[in-house]
Design goal:
By secondary structure, the chain is an alpha/beta fold. The chain has helices at residues 16-25, 51-60, 84-104, 121-135, 160-168, 182-187, 195-205, 240-247, 270-279, and strands at 4-7, 30-33, 68-71, 108-111, 143-147, 176-181, 211-216, 218-219, 230-231, 256-259. It is 35% helix and 14% strand. The strands form two sheets. The protein has an eight-stranded parallel β-barrel with strand order 1-2-3-4-5-6-7-10. The chain has a two-stranded antiparallel ribbon with strand order 8-9.
Length: 287
């Protein structure tokens, strides 16, 4: 069964209820949201999020709570070995996001591994793992899905081997997964036209059992550009045909696939893009 949706907004006054309504308007059966602004750590109290109403509406429409994905804010950088205060604040925010994710009833949360800045890359990989070890608890019912990154600047997680290094140094490995972003790995140099080969390499280095969620994005850049600029589906260098094969690949059948493509003239493209994947046929987005 195809599980597909998009990033959706979450704002006052409906919060998660509004997020669910938006996803349903796109014919989505999966969704991803931030529990607050991705650029800062301010968060509305859990009691105000209208969780019960939102989850009830989601289930009433035949959907599973496990296909609600939470994305951690960008400000978390556990890989920063140069500023202890950044590392400490990152741990605090991550712990709070774990608690909020569990309050919502979701089980998968996506985390950017971070950036080493001018620090040693291997030490940054180890510190990312150390930060997760210091935050994650045995009783937590979450999977932290480390996102594959494009390798822009000093980002870590730019290839499967770096993610494997982080995972190898995490104690509660059963609570760690990976979020595979098509734009990011394309920009990182992986050939998505040979997606079978990409999955084979992923399985050999990380293990397909750790593939927890996918971000489906086209790319404005040629393969290996290391720039991370998302394009609308079918309007980039990856193309609809390749992305459609990925979305419908039998080995990813039960994995939620989330679109993070750009708005067009302040309008959401997600309903059109989801419909194209459901039908397996590319139709241009009305502009």
């Amino acid at each position: 069964m195809l599980k597909i949706g998009s990033h959706v907004s979450m704002s006052s006054p409906e919060y998660i209820l509004g997020s669910v309504k938006e996803a349903l308007a796109y014919r989505a059966n999966a969704l991803m949201l931030y529990t607050g602004a991705p650029q800062n750590s301010f968060r509305v109290p859990i009691s105000q999020l209208r969780i019960e109403e939102g989850i009830s509406l989601w289930k009433e429409n035949g959907n599973d709570v496990k296909d609600i994905i939470i994305h951690c804010p960008y400000i978390i950088n556990l890989a920063n070995t140069l500023k202890p205060e950044t590392y400490l604040s990152g741990k605090e925010v991550l712990r709070r996001e774990i608690d909020r994710t569990q309050a919502i009833g979701a089980t998968i949360m996506v985390l950017h591994p971070g950036s080493s800045l001018t620090g040693d890359v291997h030490e940054s990989l180890l510190q990312c793992a150390r930060g997760i070890n210091e935050v994650l608890k045995e009783e937590d019912n979450v999977i932290i899905a480390l996102e594959t990154m494009a390798g822009k600047g000093s980002e870590i997680g730019r290839d499967f081997s770096q993610l494997r290094t982080i995972i190898d140094n995490i104690e509660l490995k059963d609570k760690i997964g990976v979020c595979l972003d098509t734009c990011h790995i394309h920009d990182g140099g992986y050939d998505l036209m040979d997606f079978d080969g990409v999955l084979k390499e992923f399985d050999e280095i990380i293990g397909l059992d750790r593939l927890s969620v996918m971000h489906i994005n086209d790319s404005k850049n040629i393969r290996g550009a290391h720039k991370d600029r998302h394009a609308n589906i079918g309007y980039g260098e990856i193309g609809f045909e390749t992305l459609n094969r990925i979305v419908h690949h039998p080995l990813t059948d039960n994995i939620a696939k989330i679109l993070e493509t750009p708005y067009i003239d302040s309008k959401s493209p997600y309903g059109y893009e989801i419909e194209n994947f459901i039908n397996g046929e590319f139709r241009e987005i009305p502009l």
